[in-house]
């Protein structure tokens, strides 16, 4: 408290009262009293700042007054700091942070006062220090006196010592005090320095704030000036706009006034007009009533007329409907006529250019909707440059597999109706034959060619008809490679997948005039029930097909592939049998060897291919010319196709064209060939339908065959027994000779026999006879004779060994006489048999069980009871040919021969013939199947 008082200045006493009396109480004193605290010197500077909230209530006006009245000089340091704080707070709270001039003045004043007081305080401290030093000196002199006194008396000494001790204690206390005062002084000095630093910082801030404030003031003044200027300008503008608007308002008022007047006039005018219109409307209403009546009258008349016309139109519609029916009937009749006429259908398909082909100059100029096709050579000029052809249908390069098949589909239906159908693809190499027949791949159904689609369709139709007809389907696949017939498949491939075995032995062609189109009975037959079965079989077959790369086609087919589908349907109501067959033939392509650059094997293949195709051309030419001789025998291909080209089949040929200009000459010759084919007339197609009676007859014949076979076996056994007993070498060797001779003829004709046959058959027999089989020889002879259809059918239904064609001395092959002799029949018997067979087949509807007995009696009159004479007897055997009672001699001869030779020979013939029919390497099931289909 003492120090605080001293810090207040020289005029302040130690208890805080003023030196000259009572210190006038300033406003800060009142605040301090209100706060109930007396500032301590130890933390006075800090506390001053703590008290700012007290000073904050000090009104600013009082401070100014205080400064003006020099009351500030008398204010305490504490309150001065409060003033400074408040001013600074105000400055900080101020919106722009500026310090007004008068505030700065006050601050400076306050700071000056604080500075003065600080210096006074420092002086005070110095004085106090001096005073302390004087005191110390005074005490030390006293101590000296006291020491002297101590030396005088001991009592006094004691007292003096005590006094001295006390004085020493006081001295120590005083020194300590002094030290603490010194420390305080140092502290105060430091605080003073801090205060100075604070003051100078405040001064700097003050200066900066002042400068900012002045700058801001100037800026504000400038802005105010500008704003004032703009406001004045705006005011002027608004005033001028106001003038203009007032003018406009007056103008508008004038205008609306005039308009109002005009509208008034118009209203009067319209009123007059409306009155006139109302009058006119009345007139119109009157007129419309009259017109309405007129219209109603007209409408009534129109309705009457319409009724009348409707009646007429109905008549016309009926007529049109009839017309369509007639048209459909016409179409049907046309087809029937076509069928009857037997023309081969020819569809032409043009292959698109292949992706890798660089030059795309086409020879196809025009494709008509009705089968017209114009081809031309774009790089040649001349009158032969352009040619028109007409076929049943022409498919453009963009035609899909499905579109192509759609036009083929009706033929597939015919197969199930019991017709024989043949579809084959012809064209130069690489023109798309395999693409059309098989398709590029079997994976996608879209790519399927005619083969797969046909079989698929076949199964679907068969399925849809299963309630009335039960169908069985079987397939054969063969190829003609280098003029040799190979089988693609054996039963092993189909029934036992693990044992894949391709029977590629060469085959013989049987009669080409079989009712079921069975041209190659040796080829194994495979029963199929679903399209999947067919796909499996055909993929095996196709992998085995001879294919090679040529300059014209990377995968050129080097063989003619023949897929035959046999269909056998049994009518569940009548038990009638339908037999249809479908030949699907992908011919090898004709090629100019100079273009295909074929050498070695390829060249040989090409030569064979071209030769067989030219043989096909010859056959077509002969058929087109209606020649009596048709050279079917010139190639295996024509032999196989014989029943399709010259028989009663429905035939469709796909002519494949390569549009490339380089193939122009091949295209023209292909088209010429196709044109000739389309002109060929086949015999009327005929359904292979067997009535119940015919089938019964066949069954009886079959049972007869079995009986004969049994007898053969028995005779064979007896003969061997006899030979072993008698050792008759002569008879045996003779028999052996006959047997081997027969075998040679039935299996493979010896060159000598061929020569014989050639000379015997006819002058027009083929010079290029192949390695021929007896059976094909016979078939050719039959076909060329052109009149032995029924005989062949009989032979087909009977055992091969008893074929009447062989027994006929006139038409039989080179060993027919042998056969007759071996059978032990008289010359006349063979004629009779031939006649019987003709008659039997000519009365298919009227035959009955007696036919078999007639046949049996004719063959074995001694062992068989003569048939009862009946109506059928007359039908079967014309009166002129009734079996005459055998003469005694003849009878004896018959008996003799029948006992030994005929049966022996029959055995030989039968076994050899059977060998030629079934083939040695075919499996038993395939044999049975083939028999069933025959
Ligand atoms: N209509 C078509 N659309 C697309 N490509 C086709 C068409 N016809 C044929 N091709 C393609 O042309 C090429 C030859 O076709 P393909 O092998 O069927 O001819 P080819 O007449 O059978 O020949 P070759 O007689 O030499 O066997 C094949 O690559 C085939 O994919």
Automatic annotation (TrEMBL):
Highest taxon listed in the record's lineage: Eukaryota
InterPro entries reported for this sequence: Kinesin-like_fam, Kinesin_motor_CS, Kinesin_motor_dom, Kinesin_motor_dom_sf, P-loop_NTPase
Residues in coiled coil: 203-255
Keyword terms, alphabetized: ATP-binding, Coiled coil, Microtubule, Motor protein, Nucleotide-binding
Compositional bias of kind Polar residues: 749-762, 890-902
Example GO BP: microtubule-based movement
Region (Disordered): 1-24, 727-822, 863-934
Record keyword ATP-binding present: yes
Keyword Nucleotide-binding: yes
Protein residues bound to ATP: 427-434
Comp. bias regions, Low complexity: 903-928
Pfam families for this protein: Kinesin
MF annotations from Gene Ontology: ATP binding; microtubule binding; microtubule motor activity
Ranges of residues in domain Kinesin motor: 343-680
Biased composition (Basic and acidic residues): 865-874
Annotated Gene Ontology cellular component terms: microtubule
Similarity-based family: Belongs to the TRAFAC class myosin-kinesin ATPase superfamily. Kinesin family. KIN-14 subfamily.
Protein name in UniProt: Kinesin-like protein
Species whose genome carries this gene: Trapa natans
């Amino acid at each position: 408290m003492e120090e605080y008082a001293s810090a207040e200045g020289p005029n302040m006493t130690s208890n805080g009262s003023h030196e000259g009396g009572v210190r006038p109480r300033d406003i800060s004193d009142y605040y301090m009293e209100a706060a109930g605290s007396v500032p301590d010197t130890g933390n006075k500077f800090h506390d001053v700042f703590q008290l700012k909230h007290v000073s904050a209530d000090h009104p600013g006006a009082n401070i100014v007054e205080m400064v003006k009245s020099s009351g500030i000089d008398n204010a305490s340091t504490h309150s001065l700091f409060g003033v400074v704080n408040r001013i600074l707070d105000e400055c900080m709270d101020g919106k722009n942070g500026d310090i007004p001039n008068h505030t700065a003045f006050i601050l400076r004043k306050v700071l000056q006062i604080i500075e003065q007081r600080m210096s006074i305080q420092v002086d005070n401290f110095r004085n106090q220090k001096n005073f302390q030093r004087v005191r110390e000196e005074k005490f030390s002199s006293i101590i000296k006196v006291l020491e002297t006194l101590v030396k005088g008396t001991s009592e006094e000494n004691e007292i003096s010592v005590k006094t001295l001790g006390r004085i020493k204690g006081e001295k120590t206390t005083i020194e300590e005090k002094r030290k603490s005062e010194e420390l305080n002084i140092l502290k105060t000095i430091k605080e003073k320095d801090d205060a100075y630093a604070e003051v100078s910082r405040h001064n700097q801030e003050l200066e900066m704030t002042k400068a900012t404030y002045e700058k801001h003031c100037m800026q504000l003044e400038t802005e105010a000036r500008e704003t004032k200027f703009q406001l004045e300008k705006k005011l002027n503008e608004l005033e001028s706009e106001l003038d203009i608007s007032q003018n406009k308002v007056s103008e508008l008022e004038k205008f609306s006034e005039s308009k109002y007047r005009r509208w008034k006039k118009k209203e009067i005018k319209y009123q007059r007009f409306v009155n006139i219109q109302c009058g006119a409307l009345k007139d119109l209403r009157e007129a419309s009533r009259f017109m309405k009546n007129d219209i109603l009258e007209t409408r009534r008349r129109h309705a009457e007329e319409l009724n009348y016309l409707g009646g007429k139109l109905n008549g016309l519609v009926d007529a049109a409907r009839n017309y369509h029916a007639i048209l459909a009937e016409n179409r049907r009749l046309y087809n029937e006529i076509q069928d009857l006429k037997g023309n081969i259908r020819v569809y032409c398909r043009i292959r698109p250019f292949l992706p890798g082909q660089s030059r795309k100059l086409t020879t196809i100029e025009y494709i008509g909707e009705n089968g017209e096709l114009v081809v031309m050579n774009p790089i040649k000029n001349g009158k032969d440059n352009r040619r028109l052809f007409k076929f049943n249908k022409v498919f453009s390069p963009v035609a899909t597999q499905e579109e192509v098949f759609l036009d083929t589909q009706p033929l597939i239906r015919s197969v199930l109706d019991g017709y024989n159908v043949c579809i084959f693809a012809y064209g130069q190499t690489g023109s798309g034959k395999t693409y059309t027949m098989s398709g590029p791949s079997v994976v996608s159904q879209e790519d399927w060619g005619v083969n797969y689609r046909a079989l698929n369709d076949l199964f679907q139709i068969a399925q849809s008809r299963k309630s009335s007809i039960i169908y069985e389907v079987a397939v054969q696949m063969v190829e003609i490679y280098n003029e040799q017939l190979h089988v693609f498949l054996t039963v092993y491939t189909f029934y036992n997948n693990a044992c894949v075995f391709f029977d590629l032995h060469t085959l013989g062609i049987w009669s080409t005039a079989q009712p079921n189109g069975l041209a190659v009975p040796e080829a194994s037959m495979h029963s199929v029930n679903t399209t999947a079965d067919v796909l499996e079989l055909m993929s095996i077959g196709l992998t085995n097909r001879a294919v090679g790369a040529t300059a014209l086609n990377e995968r050129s087919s080097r063989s003619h592939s023949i897929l035959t589908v046999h269909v056998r349907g049994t009518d569940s109501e009548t038990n009638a049998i339908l037999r249809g067959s479908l030949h699907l033939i992908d011919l090898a392509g004709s090629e100019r060897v100079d273009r295909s650059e074929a050498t070695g094997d390829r060249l040989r293949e090409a030569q064979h291919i071209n030769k067989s195709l030219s043989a096909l051309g010859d056959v077509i030419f002969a058929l087109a010319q209606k020649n009596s001789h048709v050279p079917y025998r010139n190639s295996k291909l024509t032999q196989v196709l014989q029943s399709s080209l010259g028989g009663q089949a429905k035939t469709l040929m796909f002519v494949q064209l390569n549009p490339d200009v380089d193939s122009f000459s091949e295209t023209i010759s292909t088209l010429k060939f196709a044109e000739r084919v389309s002109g060929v007339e086949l015999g009327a197609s005929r359904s292979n339908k067997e009535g119940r009676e015919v089938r019964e007859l066949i069954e009886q014949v079959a049972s007869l065959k079995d009986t004969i076979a049994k007898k053969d076996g028995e005779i064979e056994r007896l003969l061997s027994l006899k030979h072993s007993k008698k050792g008759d070498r002569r008879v045996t060797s003779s028999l052996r000779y006959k047997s081997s001779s027969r075998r040679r003829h039935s299996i493979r004709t010896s060159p000598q026999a061929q020569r014989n046959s050639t000379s015997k058959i006819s002058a027009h027999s083929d010079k290029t006879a192949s390695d021929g089989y007896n059976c094909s020889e016979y078939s050719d002879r039959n076909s060329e004779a052109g009149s032995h259809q029924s005989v062949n059918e009989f032979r087909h239904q009977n055992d091969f060994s008893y074929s009447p064609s062989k027994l006929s001395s006139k038409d039989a092959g080179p060993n027919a006489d042998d056969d007759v002799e071996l059978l032990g029949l008289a010359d006349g018997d063979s004629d009779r048999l031939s006649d019987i067979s003709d008659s039997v087949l000519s009365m298919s509807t009227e035959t009955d069980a007696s036919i078999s007995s007639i046949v049996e009696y004719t063959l074995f009159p001694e062992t068989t009871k003569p048939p009862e004479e009946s109506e059928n007897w007359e039908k079967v055997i014309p009166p002129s040919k009734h079996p005459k009672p055998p003469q005694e001699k003849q009878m004896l001869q018959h008996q003799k021969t029948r006992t030994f030779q005929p049966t022996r020979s029959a055995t030989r013939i039968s076994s050899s013939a059977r060998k030629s029919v079934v083939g040695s390497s075919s499996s038993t099931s395939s044999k049975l199947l083939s028999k069933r289909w025959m």
